[in-house]
Design goal:
Layout: E1 6-10, E2 13-16, E3 22-28, E4 31-36, E5 41-47, E6 50-51, E7 53-62, E8 69-70, E9 75-82, E10 94-101, E11 106-116, E12 124-134, E13 140-150, E14 159-164, E15 168-173, E16 178-186, E17 191-196, H1 199-203, E18 219-220, E19 223-233, E20 238-249, H2 252-268
Antiparallel strand pairs: 1-2, 2-3, 3-4, 4-5, 5-6, 7-8, 7-13, 9-10, 10-11, 11-12, 12-20, 13-19, 14-15, 14-18, 15-16, 16-20, 17-19
The structure holds calcium ion (3 copies).
Length: 269
């Protein structure tokens, strides 16, 4: 993905050339995460100098919408970076963003909290809380999607991804010795899918209401995954999603699973 050159940064906000893009960067310990809050969402997660993420964004469908829409395409009300651990690391480590879509009658409040590890640990954690509020004076049926594309070790090749129990997504690059796990803390997703790029992304622009296929994998090379929550909000009601992503060096057991998966795949060909 080509990104425009950063022009100027102040108070954690960076404005870029050419478009309405608005980039925020949060940092903690050995880790940096970058977000374009008006186009595409998170586009970078660096841990000890290594690039691990290609994209994460949120999509939704409500009311009479015939297809999903990106949350970052709705009206940005505000984006505020803050520092939550000034005594151990004085840089901004948390980003709160608020969006509003009056046609859909919804408000989206997203909070990203980055906890970097010690230098050289190759470990970092990103916690996310999403609150979806109904602005309508009537019930509002919503489908909300989280979509993520990790390219571990900076490469889309060599990765294996799978989903455990419908709520824990795992991805490992065995050769490069790096892994990520995402746990949906609460509530359990209605549906999930792990698939090769760009199959899931295509669902969000196919002109149809989409439901994830509950494929748990494993999937190889350019792995992506998505979680879906279906719910009905009362007037003034809200829905809270809490989840957590943890990057760690791949445990030896995971590396073995990865090698076994690659061997099995070669045999199938
Ligand atoms: Ca890789
Ligand atoms: Ca669709
Ligand atoms: Ca990928």
């Amino acid at each position: 993905m080509t990104r425009p050159i950063l022009l100027a940064c102040a108070a954690g906000a960076c404005f870029v050339t050419g478009a309405s893009a608005q980039v925020f960067i949060i940092e903690d310990g050995n880790s940096t995460a970058a977000f374009d809050v008006t186009a595409g969402g998170q586009f970078s997660w660096i841990v000890d100098g290594g690039s691990e993420l290609f994209n994460q964004d949120f999509y939704f469908r409500a009311g009479n919408m015939l297809d999903e829409a990106s949350v970052t395409s709705t009206a940005l009300i505000g984006a505020v970076p803050t520092d939550t651990n000034p005594f151990s690391d004085p840089r901004d480590d948390t980003l709160s963003v608020l969006y509003r879509d009056l046609a859909a009658g919804l408000e989206f409040e997203i909070r990203y909290g980055l906890s970097g590890g010690t230098p050289g640990s190759r470990t970092a954690d990103l916690a996310e809380q999403i609150i979806i509020r109904n602005l309508l004076p009537s019930a509002n049926a919503v489908s909300f999607f989280q979509y993520v594309d990790f390219d571990l070790g900076g490469t889309s090749t060599g990765d294996m991804g799978w989903i455990d129990n419908g709520r824990v997504a795992n991805q490992v690059d065995a050769a490069l010795g790096i892994s990520v796990a995402e746990t949906v803390v609460v509530p359990a997703p209605s549906h999930y899918s792990v698939a090769n790029f760009p199959n899931i992304l295509n669902l969000f622009s196919d002109g149809l209401p989409s439901t994830l296929d509950d494929n748990a994998g494993p999937v190889f090379d350019d792995v992506t995954w998505s979680f879906q929550w279906d719910f009905v909000l009362d007037p003034g009601g809200s829905f809270l999603i809490s989840k957590d992503k943890l990057i760690t060096p791949a445990p030896a057991s995971l590396a073995l699973v990865g090698i076994a998966g690659l061997v099995a795949r070669r045999r199938r060909r």
